[in-house]
Amino acid sequence: MKLHHLNLTVTDVAASRAFLEKYFGMQCVSSRGNGFVAMFDDDHFVLTLMKGTNVQYPATFHIGFPQENEDQVNMIYQRLKEDGFEVEPPQYSHGYTFYVEAPGGFTVEVLC
Q: Is the whole-model pTM more than 0.70?
């Protein structure tokens, strides 16, 4: 059995979509105006984004994008930092990891 899809409610669907496409290679496969998109990863996992006005996830809520090695984690970290995102450097914890607040109101973990 495997997880097929996840829906996130976000404050800005277009910005969230652009972020996920640019930094994580997600591909939009369907959209309805500025209120809904469906995205695939390389394994065809479906991530849907729906517009909401008062988005409040619990403090520890996040989605994760595992990478194959530390160099890939560092590359994504550097791109985000250069593009103006406030990110703490990767550190060793339960893996080599860092977190970033994504446009739209959710947190992303990048790890290997």
A: yes
